[in-house]
Amino acid sequence: MREEQVHPVSAVNLSIGFPGEMLLENVSFDVYSGEIFVILGGSGSGKSTLLKHIIGLYTPLSGKIFIHGQDLTTAGQDEKTSILNRIGISYQSGALFGSMTLLENIRLPLEEFTNMPMEAMNLVSRLKLFQVGLEGYEMRMPSELSGGMQKRAAIARAMALDPSILFMDEPSAGLDPLTSLELDELILDIARSLKITFVIVTHELASIFNIADRMIILDKKRKRIAAQGNPVELSTSSPDPWVRSFLNREKNVGN
């Protein structure tokens, strides 16, 4: 346990990449409790790769990743499993199992990680579907749902174990503007009503300005974090002209 204030997520002097390719070098940031935190960057900047490091899918080249003060990078398998059971993950594709009903999809984490009786697992699964506005769809197959509904179902499954942190990779990808706005409203409602901390990778600027409390912007060329803060404030007051131009969709300046 670190001595300083414990945040839901902390990256300390983190370097990530692959053999022969450094994506980010010596970056540090904290995610505050209860906030919606966005990771933004241009194509190839490493934002999705950074997320995969934070949730333990990849091992960093150097540095530390802490989840609620526990060091994910040095944890043994049992400790790592315990840490990861406290988080939820919603992938870009939704990753629902097409051969299972929505109820069965949501119930899957409960079956794997709890000893709850079937009746209780079904009750929890129905509650999660209710929380994302999919009550009455328990017996539907994923193929019977629209893209937006599939995203909602994926969020419900990510919430099955009552995580304190919910990670999302490109939640608005493939959605029309109205459906994307409805998903933004759902994320805001969940964050505020359930006090869940969100960490979201996205390139959708409209969504970022709708939902983000704070953000980091990854700079591909400099392999670092170009800016941290509130998106509205950064778009108007960042001392870095590249950050302002990026957030305001203007032609890049000096980068």
Please state roughly what percent of the residues sit in beta strands, choosing from under 5%, 5-15%, 15-25%, 25-35%, 35-45% or over 45%.
15-25%
- The CATH topology of the largest domain turns out to be Rossmann fold
The strand line-up of the biggest sheet is 6-7-8-3-9-10
Mind telling me the CATH class of the largest domain? Answer: Alpha Beta
Total E-strand runs: 10
Could you give the order of the helices and strands?
Answer: EEEHEEHEHHHEHEHEEHH
- Integer average pLDDT: 91
List the total number of helices.
Answer: 9
Within CATH, the superfamily of the largest domain carries the name P-loop containing nucleotide triphosphate hydrolases
Gyration radius over CA? 19 Å
**Which architecture name of the largest domain does CATH use?**
3-Layer(aba) Sandwich
The structure class reads: alpha/beta
Helix content: 25-40%
Main sheet specs: 6 strands, mixed
Task: Tally the structural domains.
Answer: 2
